[in-house]
Amino acid sequence: MSAYLDNHSATKPCSSALERMRPYLEEEWGASFAPHQKGIDQLHALDGRIEALYDLIGATDDDRFFFTSSGADAIHHVLNSVYLELSRKEGKCRFVASCLEDAPLLQGLKRLEEQGCFAEIVPSKPDGTIDLEKLRAAIDPRTALVSISWAPGLTGVLQPIEEIAAICRELDVYLHIDVTYAVGKVSLDFVGDYITFAGDRMHGLKSSGALFAKPGVPLVSSLAGGTLDVPSLTALSAAAQQSMLTLDIMGLETARLRNHFEERILQSIPGAEILFPDSLRLPNVSLLSFPGVHQEALLYLLHRKKVFAAIGGIYHQQLFRLLLACGCEEKVAAGAISFALSRLTTEKEIDYAIETIAGAVRFLQTISGGV
Amino acid sequence: MSAYLDNHSATKPCSSALERMRPYLEEEWGASFAPHQKGIDQLHALDGRIEALYDLIGATDDDRFFFTSSGADAIHHVLNSVYLELSRKEGKCRFVASCLEDAPLLQGLKRLEEQGCFAEIVPSKPDGTIDLEKLRAAIDPRTALVSISWAPGLTGVLQPIEEIAAICRELDVYLHIDVTYAVGKVSLDFVGDYITFAGDRMHGLKSSGALFAKPGVPLVSSLAGGTLDVPSLTALSAAAQQSMLTLDIMGLETARLRNHFEERILQSIPGAEILFPDSLRLPNVSLLSFPGVHQEALLYLLHRKKVFAAIGGIYHQQLFRLLLACGCEEKVAAGAISFALSRLTTEKEIDYAIETIAGAVRFLQTISGGV
After folding, report:
1. Per-residue pLDDT tens for A226-263?
2. What pLDDT, on a 0 to 100 scale, did the predictor assign at position A253?
3. How high is the pLDDT of residue A76?
4. Tens digit of pLDDT for each residue in B138-186?
């Protein structure tokens, strides 16, 4: 038995994505821009397929779509576009992000700082949302871009997107929203100027990502000069279509399983707590803290019993630091683990996870002498 | 019947690549850096697989390998590394390339020029090789990098790599060699400081590319901050292994088919000529010029009859311009088409191609009133 509750870091490619992709690997593998049948067939194959991606994030025909090789690639393309068009040409070299952001954005900002830009990191409030007053204060006339997640994966807390967008409009700065963890989980609108997400977090492939841009915003042409990766794009659009079709499963059944999981954990483990319980949260994420245990020890035990979860690390922010940045008590942050379900998660997996977590917490509390 | 002789722009993913990849799409799809079994299994799966890539280009254990999302991505990573480490930090902002290079490099250089760098383009000699004296003259103390192809795809002419490397060593500039069209066609050594190639030109996937770097050369860490695309990397290493195993097929059987193709074309079409006949050429490429026809008209007819070939375009250099740059007569350049076989090309395809080309050339010569 196992329970895969680490859909933060990878999701299972859905069978529809793999099936739709297959012909483009086995038969129609020509270069999509080649001026002959084997090229043109590939482009025709995309007819009517990109629409699902537009629908998924509420984009309109006027918005531009770029297929990218990953979610990180999409984020870097946004940063690079703004850097080349605004920082270098107009001297707008300040970038604002929240303290809740993920590695690709933080690494991208670090690179921009090496090139002479400045990154302002805005703190979060204790409810896990970005501090809007501090966001406003962080923006100055030299700010080029505000970049935030619709909902960070580890906390699952939905950010006040409309308010953030209003501030950016008022102060005339561009807004980039990464929806990697929100896409396919809640219904989205194209708020802001750029939207990015990763294929491998929504049952597509690791070799896929998406960037949408509103008309007229800074956007350098892709540096690639290579051929379009039609197989991966086909898989991404199939995954998008499945995500649309199953949005209600996510909002009803997955949310029910998540709530069941949380209730049973609270019942079985005295002192366990749900973090950010009163905030709006993604329906598939459960961020819990367990008293008297250290998150790394608990995660190790869970992983040994094939209950897969996350505390961040190289490619997420460290959950511990992220929680401290939200004003969490150190001992609560030290015992926190994040669980992310997917629409494929079963009740059996959840029940196995509950039992395993309860046993592991009890064991750790015993050997550490209780709380 | 058809004949796919456009292996310049895409090659068929080999069955070994697809089969080796499949488990990583269907079962072992975890994030490779996740600290649990589903992550660790992926890394274990790569044990002993990367070696084939090292072998393919003659790299040693000391050399560093980066998996990239395409050949273009690999080239941009080299340019970006040199730009950030040498141009910005030491003021070395000159880049030298040959006039035979492909779109990803040329686009990358254009972007660098927008950022204040200079690109020097060295002309070619009439035999299709870079002019070594002009190369030497183009390098000055502010030159950071020389970037050339081992063999450009459209001409197939092998470049004097050892001599180029000697000049770069003597003048103390870094050398990047793109081996996209040469890899798996001829045996390679790791000459120079960087080697790049594209997976989709050697029977891997479009979502794969490789960058090798000698120890100590400028190399910024990958901006990605994302997860490793294990499926595409697995496919690339399987494709590399197959390329190694079939290098003799390429050198013997594919070369024989290419020679047969050229002989029969010369016999059937009076005035047809092989371009760069006395240069060392890739065993799979045939660059031919047909008298009294326009390359675009001929290519159109061939494509209608499913004989697929190339004259360059967006993602290659234009063959016409490239040939003029080599000092070719305009009317010879205007009638030129490049054919690229692969190890999967059959004698039947070649015979069909010969017959179709001969018929199409005759037809075009007739309607244009002969030569």
Report:
1. 788 999 999 999 999 999 999 999 999 999 999 999 99
2. 96
3. 94
4. 999 999 999 999 999 999 999 999 999 999 999 999 999 999 999 999 9
**Cβ–Cβ gap B72/A18 under 8 Å:** no
Please name the residue that has the structure tokens 């010879």: B332
Q: Cα(A175)–Cα(A187) distance, rounded to whole angstroms?
A: 19
Task: Tell me the ipTM for this assembly.
Answer: 0.93
CA atoms of A359 and A364, how far apart (whole Å): 9
Q: How far is B56 from chain A (nearest CA, A)?
A: 22
Q: Identify all chain A residues contacting B88, using CB atoms and an 8 Å cutoff.
A: 115
Q: Phi/psi at A302 (nearest 5 deg)?
A: -65, -45
Query: Would the pLDDT of B228 be above 60?
Result: yes
The Cα of A117 is separated from the nearest Cα of chain B by a number of Å equal to 14
Residue B229 and residue A206: Cβ atoms within 8 Å?
yes
| pLDDT given at position B224 | 62
Model pLDDT for residues A290-327, shown as the tens digit of each residue: 999 999 999 999 999 999 999 998 667 899 999 999 99
| Residue B222: pLDDT over 50 | yes
Q: Do B85 and B218 touch, CB atoms closer than 8 A?
A: yes
pLDDT of residue B368: 79
DSSP string, A164-178: HHHHHHHHT-EEEEE
Q: Where are the alpha helices (DSSP H) in A95-212?
A: 103-114, 132-138, 161-171
Structural domains for chain A = 3-9+247-368 (3.90.1150.10), 15-245 (3.40.640.10)
Residues B77 and B222 sit within 8 Å (Cβ to Cβ): yes
Q: Which residues of chain A have pLDDT under 50?
A: 371
Of B187, B309, B293, B298, whose CA–CA distance to B258 is shortest?
B309
Using the structure block, give the residue that is written with the tokens 């989980």.
Answer: A185
- Map residue B96 onto helix, strand or coil: strand
Is pLDDT larger for residue A313 or for residue B259?
A: B259
Cβ of A84 within 8 Å of Cβ of B303? The answer is no
Number of CB pairs, chain A paired with chain B, less than 8 A apart: 195
> What distances in angstroms separate CA A355 from CA A55, B67, B103, one per listed residue?
39, 40, 57
Residue recorded with tokens 């905030």: A279
Tell me the C-alpha distance between B44 and B325, whole Å: 49
Chain B positions in Cβ-Cβ contact with residue A9 (cut-off 8 Å): 30-31, 33-34, 39, 227
Picking from B4, B114, B224, the nearest residue to A104 by CB comes out as: B224
For residues A184 and A187, what is the distance between their CA atoms, to the nearest angstrom? 7
Which residue type sits at B182? A
- The answer to whether the Cβ–Cβ distance between B70 and A229 falls below 8 Å is yes
The residue with greater pLDDT, B108 or B40, is B108
Q: Provide the pairing of β-strand B336-340 with B307-308.
A: unpaired
Question: Residue A369's pLDDT is what?
Answer: 65
- Which of B10, B76, B105 comes nearest A30 by C-beta? B10
d(CA A111, CA B147): 24
d(CA B231, CA A291): 39
Residue type, A10: A
